[in-house]
Amino acid sequence: MDDALPVTRPPALRHGRAALAVSFFAQGALFAMLVTRIPAIQDRYGISDGLLPVFLAAVPILAGVGSVVTEQLVKRVRPSAVLRWVQPVVGLVLVGLGAGDRMWTAAVTLALFGVCVGGLDASMNMLGVSLQREYGQSIMLGFHASYSLGGILGACLAWSGAHWHVSLFSLYGPAVLALIPLTLVASRWYRDQRPAAEASGAAGAAGAGGGQVVMRMLLPLCLVMAFAYIGDSTVSNWSAKYLQDTLHSSEQLSTVPYAVYMVTTLIGRSVGDAGVRRFGAVAVVRLGTVVAMAGFAVVAVAPGAWVGMLGFTLLGLGLCVIVPQTFAAAGRMFPDASDSAIARLNIFNYVGFLVGSPLVGALGDAWSYRGAMLVPLLLVGATLLYARSFAAGPAGYGVGHERPRTVDVG
């Protein structure tokens, strides 16, 4: 057969890809509507400035718990079943948060949100890695691009709600009313082909290709995940303050960098899979790391707001490729235990999110915010030391290139 002959993928595979993209989109929208309305939630429940960090820290901690629980749960049920039912719960919890007005309601709903988000993130990425394995080429960045698109939509809805003084319940209710049926319908086409070792629950040989996850081997990817989210949380939590207080921008202009960051993240992820297919995951991750480091450097030395925004633009283009490729690399490293590997790796998503913002804030207060930007630069830069971990794959395959004889026309 001619190597250039296209191979059309089965409709079930293409439908599964589209369905999972819907799930990523919905999660991006819901999460953005939560994090961008934290001040309104604080006002509604009368949460003090001293108590707010406790509430915010509890969410990623409990999300890590949810990821651990999911690792055990998918030994008994398929990840698609977990995702199908936990995603509507996340939406309902968000509505409950918008409807309540007592402190205990905020505590309970945010705790439930954290646990469910951990299960949601883990199961979504399990399905993404499984589907990429069936496709035989990189498609993970596309799923995360859908998440970015949902985040942009969610942030726009939240801005509209704040601008028009819409209550949290009136904001969350209609959004969830639209998203829950959408994800439930899409879930009919979820597709997960579990490795034999995980499906049977049997323990395989330790090491790559076996049925068990060796944390010593997974650790480099865990560190990369944590460092990437330290960089991401630096942008999401400090970009506005940095532009306004350090680079002396106007209040209106200070809101722009995060929006630009999200748009460039979407762009980078939309084209990133093509780059992985052509050049391989290692090359794309290295390039993304260098671009992200350049972004932090530009932000740190920027003489004014517009140069600072250029730095945040570079950050979006650089950081956006690292996380999806880290999940994909874990699946390749442990092809017979990918669900467990992804659940454990997902915990370090929340570690980075939990550490990043307080770390930069403490360094900024004790030293300077310009100097504080050099710390995530160095941490993200450490990804270069672990770049070869992204090449792990059985029988020479898995570095991100297409399988021989396969051209995606689906």
TrEMBL record:
PANTHER family: BYPASS OF STOP CODON PROTEIN 6, INNER MEMBRANE PROTEIN YBJJ. It comes from the Bacteria. Gene3D superfamilies: MFS general substrate transporter like domains. It is found in: Cell membrane. It is a multi-pass membrane protein. InterPro entries: MFS (IPR011701), MFS_dom (IPR020846), MFS_trans_sf (IPR036259), MFS_Transporter (IPR051788). Residues 218-410 form the Major facilitator superfamily (MFS) profile domain. Coiled coil: none annotated. The chain crosses the membrane at residues 18-38, 50-69, 81-100, 106-127, 139-160, 166-186, 217-235, 255-272, 279-300, 306-330, 342-361. It comes from Actinacidiphila polyblastidii. This is MFS transporter. Keywords: Membrane, Transmembrane, Transmembrane helix.
